Amino acid sequence: MVEELHLKVEPHPDPYKLSWLKKGNDVHVNKRCLVQFSIGTHYKDEIMCDVVPMDACHLLLGRPWLYDRRVIYDGFKNTYSFVKEGVKIILAPCRMEDKSKAVTGEGSSYLSKSQFL
């Protein structure tokens, strides 16, 4: 994602190794970048992300993001909720019918998988 979107990377101030990400090999984390993203129409954010090669997803929101935003996870509903600028945001899994529809058009910053590749 970093290469495709030409995001500006910088040296990581505290490089480290990840052993759990790729079995048998250490992944060296020595770069980071600022990523602006949105989820839906109401939530926009930017976070400093460590850059690592991954096949699982493009952006992994982990414990620092959860902690900084005081996110509450509901295991029964499989939702994450938090308050941003006085507005309650609830993140839920995509419904199956939503996954087949690509958001495109003028002014859209969303890419289909084929456009991204």
From TrEMBL:
Gene3D superfamilies: Acid Proteases
Listed name of the protein: Uncharacterized protein
